[in-house]
Amino acid sequence: MLKKRIIPCLDVDNGRVVKGVNFIDLIDAGDPVEQAIIYNAEGADELCFLDITASSDNRDTLLEVVKKTAENCFIPLTVGGGVRNLDDISRLLHFGADKVSINTAAVDNIDLVAEAANKYGSSTIVIAVDAKETAENQWKVFTHGGRKETNIDVVTYCNEVAKLGAGEILLTSMDRDGTKSGFDNKLLKAVTSKVNVPVIASGGVGNLSHLLDGILEGEASALLAASIFHFGEYSIGEVKRYLADNNIPVRI
Amino acid sequence: MNLAIINFGSGNLHSVHKAFESVSSDLSNPYNIIVTNDPKEIQSADKIVLPGVGAFGDCKNAILNIEGLHASLEASVIKNKVPFMGICVGMQLLADLSYEFGTHSGFGWIPGEVRRITSPKEYKIPHMGWNEITFSDHKLFDNCEQGSDFYFVHSFYFQNQKNEHSIATTKYPAQITAAVCKENICGTQFHPEKSHINGKKIIHNFLEWKP
Q: From the CA of B7, how many Å to the nearest CA of chain A?
């Protein structure tokens, strides 16, 4: 049986791991390569780096992080943040990323999704969607790290990128991110029930039952979390044992 | 001993290279691992690995567009029986035919066709993530446990014409070929380079394989 994936996410700024609360007030949580090696050993199913470095001049620091991680961790590595075009994707893959996640650039230019999927394969292209509830049961896509609102409906957009060749959707609830109040399972369900590619749930995990809810209520294929792992609240092993005890198929 | 990893522009080349290098460095006689599309280097290789992500037709065309590449692979693998491993689309290319975005001919080294996975609605496509395999007795699975998990990501699968060529299967929910072998030619649908310790075992076994 296909397992539900647990994906620790490392927000990286200038080569260091950080995790924000509602995308601001960043706290340093250490060296990304060291963290990645620990997660790999603990049984993470994949790893995710999100580059939040503001200046594009400093983006090359991430490439070194990606390279060193790929030399040490033999599990899938997704890298995103500031990916604008095919060259950016190509560079990340060359340095050892297995998948590249695209956010704002895909909203600005939807053709990029098809171009990227055609060139590198759907399996390589993750579309990251930052979603915020703007009316009851209605979610809009936000861009630029969540700072800019668009008028695009999240479910419609997810369907469109899936049709264009996105292999996977990384769906972050802006309302929940950093709050530790659980995934937005209504948002997740709205997308997973309509879209035929795997959806990674992101934003809001504070405890073990939140993870279980993301699978049972949100019907996510994979769960992404940052702070609960970084600050040692839970280990990957604890999360997996808890899910296994609740009859969720996980890789142990 | 030289091991050639074929470079035809496939995205995950670096991952494959690093994984083979890591496993090989633990051997008493490590391989000299080269990433290449040079027909001469390929013909002097003692083992050949063909990685591949992307669409079947694109991968096939990329190989055909590199002068002498396909011919050198045929000479080594078919004529000289050099041990060969295809990964993901690199494995699917061994088939006669694929129906991914049109109809494309494959290498025709292992009889069969590549078809879209058909599954009930609740099964997302691509089949992406860790899934367990059941394997038959083969060197490639030495020291592996039945039911161990490997990392898959694909929307199409290799439908073997002869059961004997399928040496491992997974379920999604129908049975899908997870690995193939015919004489000196093997291939995996899953990504050993991304399958952590289990994947390293497969790579190790391939490096030690003497078909």
A: 12
